[in-house]
Specification:
Structural class: alpha/beta
Number of strands: 7
Shape: globular
Order of helices and strands: EHHEHEHEHEHEHHEHHHHHHHH
Largest sheet: 5 strands, parallel
Strand order of the largest sheet: 2-3-4-1-5
Strand content: 5-15%
CATH topology of the largest domain: Rossmann fold
Number of domains: 3
Length: 325
């Protein structure tokens, strides 16, 4: 069988491939499973024309995202003659060979996916068990909560409804991370139900970082510095900076758009949980956009000095100096 899995949700694509891989003979897995990345045409044809050995089924996963991202009008560099040859090879492939064309693409703000569906190679591959795997936007909370409940069942985990809502709010919409937290919950509660209190206690939580950024953006430098010292006991300054940049970028987007758009509209624009946007809009009501931008600039400069070795201060002090400016 030939499959074509594409889209921007890597977790679901990986799960589908795992299902196919689990069907292979475990005694010959090293010979029965192979992955290749964006092969040139001769290697692509060789892979599609592979002949499984005596150990039965074989599965080849071909990463092919580069075939769809060429800036020119060609199809991954393949001409019409080569595309015709590829079609013939696919039509005549060995029945004991399963092939997965995997086109995982980072999400594009202007398109549903970065896979260019206009290309001839897309039309060729889409004939074969094609399936698109798209990320679930964070503002589609009902859909994400339904996914969490379905995934919990797969882990044989009982989880209460309010715990599902808190898990989504606390962890975010990354499916791989959510699945990891569900596995953690199953180990923790065993045959009992995962409650809201349990989720709050053991699942990923950035509350300390949120508090730090809130104090910082509101100008409460004294409390911000206290939180910063606490964070330094478990995190490197560059790790703190990385999160700071992300959070400040989000705050700047919300603040800049809050005069013209509703919280629900902003949530869709920046792919963020609507409740989080409402909270942020309330916190940012009396905070200057100019100050937020200035703070981000100071932190960017601190990060540059640390990474290039141009700072005369320790990384901890360089970040602290940026906070005080």
């Amino acid at each position: 069988m030939i499959y074509f899995f594409y889209g921007d949700e890597e977790f679901n694509i990986s799960n589908e491939i795992k299902k196919l891989k689990d069907k292979l003979d475990k005694n010959f897995i090293q010979m029965a499973y192979k992955e290749i990345s964006n092969p040139k045409f001769p290697d692509l044809i060789a892979a599609v024309s592979s002949q499984p050995m005596m150990f039965g089924k074989m599965l080849i996963v071909i990463d092919c995202i580069k075939y769809f991202k060429s800036k020119s009008d060609d199809d991954g560099g393949f001409d019409d003659k080569e595309l015709k040859q590829l079609e013939e090879a696919l039509e005549n492939h060995n029945e004991n060979l399963d092939i997965v064309f995997r086109a995982y693409a980072e999400p594009d703000s202007k398109k549903k996916t970065a896979v260019d569906k206009r290309k001839k190679i897309f039309k060729i591959l889409s004939k074969y068990n094609a399936q698109e795997f798209s990320q679930i936007p964070s503002y589609k909370t009902d859909e994400l909560e339904s996914w969490i409940k379905a995934q919990a069942e797969k882990h044989d985990l009982k989880i209460e409804n309010d715990a599902v809502s808190l898990l989504l709010l606390q962890v975010g919409s990354n499916l791989r991370l959510l699945d990891s937290e569900l596995e953690k919950l199953k180990v923790y509660v065993k045959d009992k139900s995962a409650t809201k209190d349990v989720v709050k206690e053991i699942c990923v939580n950035n509350d300390d970082l949120f508090a730090f950024v809130d104090y910082l953006s509101s100008g409460n430098i004294a409390k911000a510095l206290c939180e910063y010292q606490k964070l330094l006991t478990t995190k490197h300054p560059l790790a703190i900076l990385s999160v700071l940049h992300t959070m400040l970028h989000t705050k700047i987007q919300i603040k800049a758009n809050s005069l013209h758009y509703s919280s629900d509209e902003i949530a869709k624009m920046i792919n963020m949980h609507p409740y989080r946007v409402k909270l942020e809009m309330s916190k940012l009501k009396n905070i200057s956009l100019k100050n937020l931008v200035k703070l981000k600039e100071n932190l960017t400069e601190a990060e540059y000095k640390i990474k290039t070795g141009r700072s005369s201060l320790s990384p901890e002090r360089e970040v602290e100096y940026a906070l005080l400016q």
